[in-house]
């Protein structure tokens, strides 16, 4: 029995030694790698850059009142189309008591002066008719009468403007009606009936009654990184993609690039503006976020390969050209590169069309473990 046990142990030990040698032999053998094979092709390469921004009207006009007061009525709302001269709102004047008292006092004084001058005028007119006084004396009285009459009229107009905002000289000329100054679309009406408003002056910008813009004259306003801004020029065409209008791609032409950059999140960004061509039937709202794709340069009918196939050693670029399929064998070749779009790259020298080159390594897929097996 002991002999059988010893014999079994020897066999097991021998098997373990053999398995160990076999395992070490397998580990010491170089692992055969397999690669995807890419074909060198002829094609076009375009170098593009993308700027992010938004679409806004070229000119947004702020409509402000010509006098202070309270909004008595609003006749338009955001989204309405208006023409120059259309009434947007009406202001009820709340006069300043000091100015009102001063204007009323001026009217009283002008009335007293006019009444006295009128009496003098009527008396001297009769005396001149009877040839009691000379024409020169009568003309002096007549001039004073005309001056006092005009002063009374001016004082009353001033009182009417301060108290009601309307000139007695012409009821059509009034500062209480706020009108649009351009043709366009009302973008916003930031006030409500009952809100107090003030006119613009040297110390205050005044209250905005409405903002109006021509929605047919739109600009893409975006920002571009300093690494790209040196490659663009005024007049360059670009494609505008608006997130809210996914089925529409608008065209634009670059009009302006800021001469000064601003630091944002550690990068220097330059503002750019481009005139957007809005097709008929497409409604673009102010403030839509958008991306502008700018074509920087283009190469047509050149030899291209996937950029991932290129290896670099210092300043030199290499590719591996297929020599044999089975087993896979490759020849290392130096290449001269050209334009890249980030996916494909132009090869000027080193390979020709339809050559086969080494691509990415094919990794062995691990067998999937089923859920039942895990349990």
Description:
The protein has 375 residues and is α+β, with helices and mostly antiparallel strands. It folds into four domains: 34-44 and 300-362, Beta Barrel (conserved putative lor/sdh protein from methanococcus maripaludis s2 fold), CATH 2.40.420; 49-57 and 215-298, Efflux pump adaptor protein, beta barrel domain (Elongation Factor Tu (Ef-tu), domain 3, Beta Barrel); 62-93 and 176-213, OB fold (Dihydrolipoamide Acetyltransferase, E2P), CATH 2.40.50.100; 97-164, Helix Hairpins (Orthogonal Bundle). It contains five helices and 21 strands. A six-stranded antiparallel barrel has the order 2-11-15-13-12-16. Strands 3-10-8-5 form a four-stranded antiparallel beta sheet, with no helix packed on it. Strands 7-6-4-9 form a four-stranded antiparallel beta sheet, with no helix packed on it.
